[in-house]
Each structure stands twice: as C-alpha cells, then as structure tokens.
C-alpha cells in the first residue's frame, strides 16, 4: 500500500520558481495497479524522483504500508528506498554483467550472503521467465527480455511497491502486451502495489485498476477505471473510450446522441430496445466497445429520426443505466 499526501516540489531557477508538484495526493491499496498518466512536463519524472527519494519533496509525505519515507534521515535513506522497487523505461542494465549478475547487484550492495543471492536470483529469473538466459549479457537480449531483467532486479530487494516509469515506452506493441502481462502476474503472485507512470493511455487500459491524470503538477482526475470511464464528461473517459471519427457531413435530419454504458448493460441490445419501445429506426454513426477492468464498456453515437420523442427516449436510456449526451439536433 502506498499513500502520498499533499506532495509538493518547488524548484528555484534563479528568479524563477517552478512548481513541479502542486499538492499531489494518492492512495493505492496492496495488490492494486495504479496508472499515473500525464503529458510531457506534467511532473511525472519529478514525482518518480520524489517517490524514490532521489529528490526530497519540498513538503508532503510518502508512506509505504503506513511507514513514512519522505522524512527519513539520510542514514535510513538506503533502507527506506528498498521498499520501492524501480523499473525504468530502458531497463538500465549493466552491460558488463550477465542477466543473473544484474539481478544480483542490489543484493551484493547490501551484503547478502552468496548462497542466498544465488537462491533468490534463480527464483526471480524463473518468475520473469528468464531461467535460460541467466548467463546472457544485455547485448544478447531483446528489449523485452532486458525489461524482464529490470523487473527481476527491482524485485530483488522484496519491495512493497513496484514503481514503473514508462516501462513499455521503448517497446513494440506485442512486447508491451507481454511486459504488462508480466507486471500483472507478478502483482498477483506477490500481492504487490504497483504504480505505473506513463503517457500511454493504452497502458492504463490494459493494466491498471485505477488511474490518476497528472497535469501541471496536480492530479485533476482520478479513480477506479470503471468509475472514470463511466463519466462521459471526464477527460479520462474520453481518452479511454474515444468516439471514433467526426460526424458525417451529409447527415439526414434528426437528433444525435452519445451513449455510454457498462457492465451487464453493455451486452444488452440497447439499440433494438429503443427501436422496439419507440417504434423508430436508430442509425448507429460510430462506436467502440472495450473491456476495461472487470467490465465491458460501449460508447455509441446514434442518430434518431426527426420528430422522435427525445425526452422519453433519454429517460428510457437513463433508466437502463446509460449515460446520454446530446450531440446535435437538426
Ligand atoms: N531540476 C529542475 N529544476 C527546475 N525545474 C525543473 C527541474 N525538474 C523539472 N523541472 C520542471 O518541473 C516541471 C515538471 O517536469 P517533469 O520532468 O517532472 O515532467 P514530466 O511529466 O516528467 O515530463 P517528461 O515526460 O517530458 O519527462 C517542468 O516544468 C520542468 O521544467
């Protein structure tokens, strides 16, 4: 479990004051994967540096399993850092060391006995599927395999939290899927708390239970995936379940509605229900259906013929758990 409370980081550059983190708070339970998404300059790297104690926050606190990290003394810093395992965008392996030696490195630094290191390294390599590559050097591994080594190394100090900084940004889509699947399986097996810092919405879609949107150093939206998607006005909902394409230029007269629905209702034939109940033809203009978290979500843009009873249809949809947004009435 990780709890970040009112984290602020202010940089002073000559006369200029840069507020990189402006009161960031978040709470992630053990066993949850939380995505922090933001554009360039939002404060993601600063947040990573503050969480890993590479940089001291100006104020605020970071607690792992209720143990405060941000204010520990310099002497306790090294032990405190071990509670958060770090996975980088480019695995950051040592080229002169084999896979096994890279994973062993943090354990050597803290003076772990050799026999314990060997045992631990082979268990970790099995966990990440690299048993047969123990003696390979980074140059002999693919990008995905290098990232697996990075994950094994991050887990070597038995952290409570795995902090992944753009873990798939340098990988192709297939390898991205494999690495996200590995992060999920490691989470399941070790009941880890995972934070994934990313600029890729796809990563949030595939791997996260909950998400925060970081913008100019502040979290402007956050929540469980199901919750944020179900709010059609939200930026995260629009990014996670975008409506493909613009309205066709030559649209016959009628009213255009956007429908967003989830859970059991997503599988229900909502369109035929409107057609039957109101005895009219429904034109589907665009739509997407996605499995996000535990649920299926559908986002549809429909057109109703001129003269339809929009109020009654909207009430019918809302009663069936559908969020309705009026797009255009001709
Ligand atoms: N050491 C520093 N000194 C001064 N300003 C800084 C420092 N580090 C970051 N900043 C500023 O803090 C803000 C957030 O930067 P940060 O690098 O954390 O964003 P980011 O979301 O990681 O962006 P990117 O994805 O491009 O790396 C920016 O305005 C940046 O210029």
| Span between termini | 52 Å
Q: What ligand molecules are bound, each kind once?
A: adenosine-5'-triphosphate
CATH class of the largest domain: Alpha Beta
What is the H level of CATH, i.e. the homologous superfamily of the largest domain?
P-loop containing nucleotide triphosphate hydrolases
Organism: Paeniglutamicibacter terrestris
Pfam family, one: ABC_tran
Protein name: ATP-binding cassette domain-containing protein
Domain ABC transporter: 2-241
How are the SSEs placed, and which strands pair?
Elements: E1 2-13, E2 16-28, E3 33-37, H1 44-51, E4 59-64, E5 67-68, H2 77-81, E6 84-87, H3 99-109, H4 114-127, H5 143-155, E7 161-165, H6 173-190, E8 193-198, H7 201-207, E9 210-215, E10 218-224, H8 225-229, H9 235-240, E11 254-262, H10 270-278, E12 283-292, E13 295-305, H11 310-319, E14 323-329
Parallel strand pairs: 3-8, 3-9, 6-7, 7-8
Antiparallel strand pairs: 1-2, 1-4, 4-5, 9-10, 11-13, 11-14, 12-13
Bound molecules: adenosine-5'-triphosphate.
Adenosine-5'-triphosphate binds at residues 11, 13, 18, 20, 38, 40-46.
Domain ABC transporter: 2-241
Protein name: ATP-binding cassette domain-containing protein
Keywords: Amino-acid transport, ATP-binding, Cell membrane, Membrane, Nucleotide-binding, Translocase, Transport
Q: Could you explain the architecture of this structure?
A:
This protein is of the alpha/beta class and 330 residues long. The chain folds into 2 domains: 2-237, Rossmann fold, CATH 3.40.50; 245-329, 2-Layer Sandwich (Alpha-Beta Plaits). It is 32% helix and 31% strand. It has helices spanning 44-51, 77-81, 99-109, 114-127, 143-155, 173-190, 201-207, 225-229, 235-240, 270-278, 310-319, and strands at 2-13, 16-28, 33-37, 59-64, 67-68, 84-87, 161-165, 193-198, 210-215, 218-224, 254-262, 283-292, 295-305, 323-329. The protein starts with a strand and ends with a strand. The structure holds adenosine-5'-triphosphate. Adenosine-5'-triphosphate binds at residues 11, 13, 18, 20, 38, 40-46.
